[in-house]
Design brief:
The chain has two helices and eight strands; from the N terminus they run E-H-E-E-E-E-H-E-E-E.
Length: about 140
């Protein structure tokens, strides 16, 4: 099922913020530190404990977050992206192509180190989108 979720950038406060949201909303919290990821060497030294990706899930609720910032840097207000979870490879390719028209590709759509399709773009209105397709979904 295709679904849109919020993805929030925290610039060093992701662990604290997501733990707070878990205390408020309940659910299961997943935190992946930069230093524990297979791409840790692509980051500058000193940020190993910052969060590469986090997910708070409770039933259909999904809230995601990161300490990583885009190429434009961090500014409160630009730290939220829409994460579009797609239901097929055709769908993700179509959505990515259409949403990126007239916009800026931030991370080209491709199979990522964790095995799924993923890409990031800013559309022609300046809205950031993260498109994801789990190749193993049933």
């Amino acid at each position: 099922m295709t679904q849109i979720n919020a993805y929030i950038g925290f610039k060093g406060q992701c662990r604290e913020a997501m733990t707070f949201y878990q205390e408020c909303l309940g659910g299961e919290l997943f935190l992946q530190a930069i230093g524990d990821s297979p791409i840790k060497n692509q980051f500058p030294a000193g940020i190993e404990n910052e969060i590469l990706h986090s997910a708070l899930t409770k039933g259909p609720l999904l809230l995601m977050g990161t300490d990583c910032v885009g190429p434009g840097g961090y500014t409160k207000g630009n730290n939220v992206a829409l994460s579009l979870n797609c239901s097929s490879e055709d769908e993700i390719n179509t959505f990515y192509s259409k949403l990126s028209a007239g916009g800026v590709i931030i991370d080209a759509l491709k199979e990522q180190f964790w095995g799924d399709m993923f890409g990031v773009l800013s559309d022609k209105f300046g809205i950031n989108w993260m498109l994801y397709y789990d190749k193993n979904q049933k």
